[in-house]
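Hi support team,

I'm opening this ticket because the web form for multi-chain structure prediction keeps timing out on my end. I have pasted the exact lines I submitted so you can reproduce it. The total is 375 residues across two entries, so I didn't expect it to be a heavy job. Is there a limit I'm missing, or should I split the entries? Thanks in advance, R.K.
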Amino acid sequence: MYKTTGFLSFVLRRVTGVALVLYLLLHIWVIGSALSGPETFDTRLNFVQTDFFKVLEIALLAAVIYHAFDGIRLLLMNWFKVTDKRKNLFYAVIVVSALMVIAGGLPILLFMLEG
Amino acid sequence: MSERQTEQIATVRIQRFNPEKDNKPHMQDFKLAYTRDTTLLDALHEIKSHQDGTLTYRRSCRHAICGSCAMNINGHNMLACNSPLFQHLGRKGVVTIKPLPYLPIIKDLVVDRTRFWKQYLRVKPWLIHSGKTVPEKEYRISQEEVDALNKAETCIMCGACYSACPVVGSHDNYIGPHALLKSFLRVLDPRDDASLVRLEEVGTREGVYRCHTIFNCIDACPKGLDPTKAIETLRNLAVKRIAFEEEKQKRQQTLSDKTA
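Hello R.K., no limit was hit. The queue was backed up. Here is the completed structure from your submission:
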């Protein structure tokens, strides 16, 4: 194991990537049930509107945002070859992602607490 | 060793593995006196000469040019011969030395580099020259051309980048940063005539597209080289080569249409 910011970004990228695929399956499971009639759809939709899934929704937001900005970082790396700025770019991705997760996650959390 | 410097005691924690006795590697502590001039390789010499003659490691030139003594110091790959011991001591005066990661251990700090050299030969690291434009005396390469190589020609083949790469750890067939850097060097070299063949070799899922841009190769390189930049450049060139080939095939198609 070789621990650097690059390795951390790689692990986060893989974990969020797999998480997003799993989310997609769940999403299809819920939305696809619309074909089986309104009752099934309502049951499944109620199932994913519990507090547990609201917290997971914040995690989903974090995964989407990190994965997207990490992709942009890699594109910048390929276009401009700024390998000497690799650590700065990684920290920038973390900071921007964190700010956006707070901005988007706080309303979800408040909504959840208000019921 | 200068007289001004006072000697202190350091603990050198070394990963030991004897394939004839041990099932798996274990750590062993050695204590030794050091000064600011002591390098990690000096420490290993001291241990081998005076404390435990069975300690096994590779070393040759002691001038950071042979690339034999690359090893993992406190989790980072570097050359033992140009790394001062005191710079790597933790708060408790301990330095941990392990063999290069992801490679099979032969004994103690010696690893099996067969894969490293096999992948190196895959990219045909030598100059391929058609012989059409041989000058009378020697080739004169402009400073701009030399700068474009990004010092890639100063690679000492120590294996620090190769064994720092997690992709190397998970994919046996990955060409690796050392060989891709060499391929980059030959592709950009104005004297080389086999750029397209080289790009075809590295522009595969075992080559540049397998790289996950983790940058460990840059962090590990004791010569301050940049294999990631080389891989990114090769990636762009490999894409351009495919685009060119496809365009050419289309043009050839119109040729056969017309003759029909």
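A quick check on our side: Chain B touches chain A through 22 residues (CB under 8 Å). Let us know if the file doesn't open in your viewer.
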